[in-house]
């Protein structure tokens, strides 16, 4: 079974080619270049304008995760751009080594999307957006998440973990990295290798993950909030071409008709159409009576010949960004969405985070 993963690899490769043709010479694979947005708004690129470090703590233990409205980030640590920063960067840069994650969690983000490359001769995970290292490692993510949960024990963090490198020979690639395509170390890395590496992290961080989501032999039923406070919930663990690794994650999001709960049309960069698709999934989440956890991506990327992540999320002179369209809807009068499920965003703004949390009865 395969998940659709929102990474425009061919588009990123083309974007890098455009950069070279136009004389932009930046270090491929290194997280040094930046194209952070030059403007912000309540809907876009302004998450530090709000603060919700303990918003889950006041909610009843008996609430299922599917009953919540949960703000999240797509490609959570994509803050560096390699050859084509406008095509790679997707989040506000609040520092390397997962310091950016700290800022997101403090603002109220509780669903994160972690993309990893196998490094150090098959012994560790580094955080990547395709071939660009994001100046953070999986240890950074877990250390920062653990510290946050220790300081805020009423909270939980939902994590989607994805193997990023599709240039591996086991994935049908050449075994050599190129722009828009990373290769693991070694490039012969297999599913079993990624699972082995994750198991090593689980051993080094005992009790950090909600145990039923990381058994390696079975997936977890949808938990109640009281069961997962103080833990990371692994929602999915998937490979470079979207294959789902069995024995990990939540049953509803990894088996059967999981796709009916997820909207991730990541190549739809007409912001009106993208928002219409997202709104349909949000409406399904709002109307659901089964306790299912819906996941809606507001993100898309059509670089280099279309809009990049910031243009889709924040808009241009000629278009309204998806983030603003979402905020308009969530704060409009009349019939409203009562629940959103997980909403994964690029460059979320403070008012958009607040509007999602308003569905949980969280204010301020």
TrEMBL record:
<dbReference type="InterPro" id="IPR000909">
    <property type="entry name" value="PLipase_C_PInositol-sp_X_dom"/>
</dbReference>
<protein>
    <recommendedName>
        <fullName>1-phosphatidylinositol phosphodiesterase</fullName>
        <ecNumber>4.6.1.13</ecNumber>
    </recommendedName>
</protein>
<dbReference type="GO" id="GO:0006629">
    <property type="term" value="P:lipid metabolic process"/>
</dbReference>
<dbReference type="InterPro" id="IPR051057">
    <property type="entry name" value="PI-PLC_domain"/>
</dbReference>
<keyword id="KW-0732">Signal</keyword>
<feature type="domain" description="Phosphatidylinositol-specific phospholipase C X">
    <location>
        <begin position="61"/>
        <end position="237"/>
    </location>
</feature>
<dbReference type="InterPro" id="IPR006311">
    <property type="entry name" value="TAT_signal"/>
</dbReference>
<dbReference type="GO" id="GO:0004436">
    <property type="term" value="F:phosphatidylinositol diacylglycerol-lyase activity"/>
</dbReference>
<dbReference type="Pfam" id="PF00388">
    <property type="entry name" value="PI-PLC-X"/>
</dbReference>
<dbReference type="InterPro" id="IPR017946">
    <property type="entry name" value="PLC-like_Pdiesterase_TIM-brl"/>
</dbReference>
<dbReference type="GO" id="GO:0008081">
    <property type="term" value="F:phosphoric diester hydrolase activity"/>
</dbReference>
<feature type="signal peptide">
    <location>
        <begin position="1"/>
        <end position="27"/>
    </location>
</feature>
């Amino acid at each position: 079974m395969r998940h659709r993963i929102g990474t425009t690899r061919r588009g990123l490769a083309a974007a890098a080619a455009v950069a070279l043709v136009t004389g932009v010479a930046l270090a491929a694979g290194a997280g040094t270049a930046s194209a952070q947005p030059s403007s912000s708004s309540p809907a876009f690129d302004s998450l530090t304008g709000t603060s919700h470090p303990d918003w889950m703590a006041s909610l009843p233990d008996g609430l299922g995760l599917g009953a919540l409205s949960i703000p999240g980030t797509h490609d959570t640590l994509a803050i560096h751009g390699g050859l084509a920063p406008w095509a790679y960067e997707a989040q506000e840069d609040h520092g390397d080594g997962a310091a950016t994650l700290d800022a997101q969690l403090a603002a109220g983000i509780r669903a994160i999307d972690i993309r990893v490359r196998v490094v150090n001769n098959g012994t560790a995970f580094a955080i990547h957006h395709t071939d660009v290292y994001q100046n953070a490692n999986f240890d950074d993510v877990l250390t920062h998440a653990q510290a946050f949960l220790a300081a805020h024990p009423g909270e939980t963090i939902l994590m989607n973990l994805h193997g990023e490198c599709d240039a591996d020979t086991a994935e049908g690639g050449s075994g050599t990295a190129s722009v828009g395509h990373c290769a693991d170390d070694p490039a012969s890395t297999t599913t079993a290798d990624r699972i082995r590496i994750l198991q090593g992290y689980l051993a080094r961080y005992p009790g950090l993950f909600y145990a039923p989501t990381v058994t390696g032999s079975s997936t977890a039923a949808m938990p109640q909030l009281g069961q997962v406070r103080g833990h990371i919930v692994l929602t999915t663990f998937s490979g470079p071409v979207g294959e789902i690794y069995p024995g990990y994650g939540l049953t509803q999001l990894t088996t059967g008709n999981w796709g009916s709960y997820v909207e991730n049309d990541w190549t739809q960069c007409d912001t009106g159409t993208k928002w219409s698709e997202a709104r349909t999934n949000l409406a399904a989440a709002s109307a659901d009576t089964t306790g299912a956890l819906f996941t809606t991506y507001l993100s898309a990327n059509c670089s280099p010949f279309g809009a990049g992540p910031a243009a889709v999320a924040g808009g241009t002179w000629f278009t309204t960004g998806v983030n603003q369209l979402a905020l308009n809807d969530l704060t409009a009068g009349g019939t409203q969405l009562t629940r959103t499920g997980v909403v994964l965003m690029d460059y979320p703004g403070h008012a958009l985070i607040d509007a999602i949390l308003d569905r949980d009865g969280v204010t301020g």
